[in-house]
Amino acid sequence: MKGFITRYPLVFAGIILWFVGIPFLIIGLLMGIHEKNFRDNAVEVQGIIETIAIDRHGDETDYDVFVAYDYDGYDYSNVRINSYSSAMYEGAEITLLVNPDNPREVETENAGIILAAVFGGMGFLITLIGLILFIISGSRNRRNKNLMETGQHVYGEIESLERDTSVTINGRHPYRIYCKYQDPKTGYIYKFKSRILDFNPNDSYKIGDQIGIYLEPGNFKHYYVDAVDKMADMTFDFT
Question: How far is the C-alpha of 192 from the C-alpha of 18, rounded, in Å?
Fold first, then answer.
């Protein structure tokens, strides 16, 4: 699993986002369906805000709103609604939607729609970002494969074997190999770095070693450093 995370970080991040986003999306859809069914049968009545209970804890403040209204000849009071806005105040008139089968089940006009939209919107956005990461990862893998099949194969010189402190996986910074290549035709020096590695390159390489690099002809910005774990077949991990 650790090797998969390191080799395919964008795929792993996409999977995590899907695990988070899809439940939000499903909850939003279910809430939307419930809200539609509720509104199809609900009856609109005018009520009054009786009480707004304020609960302050730390930096957060919760508001519980209780309303009174008349429905089908009966008076209902001290009924809590699941919404609050800064425009609400005690004694204010408020439009409510009442469930005819359970008259103490009430909502404000937009509360259910807004909540469903928030959950569904968050779920859609998170899931979409996960999908984009999958697409980016797939595109990179295809490009690297194509470079290895059709690219210009050269050898560069390793300049350093370092941890990439901008990336953290399982609480650790993975390694990268930094290398350079001097074009014999122009004399220009190009510097490259490997993908993040799922092994310690110090066991396979040292500074000054040659390492294979695949370049896109005419556009060296597209490249692939062929970093290989040379100790993979010589290590037996029984821990």
Answer: 32
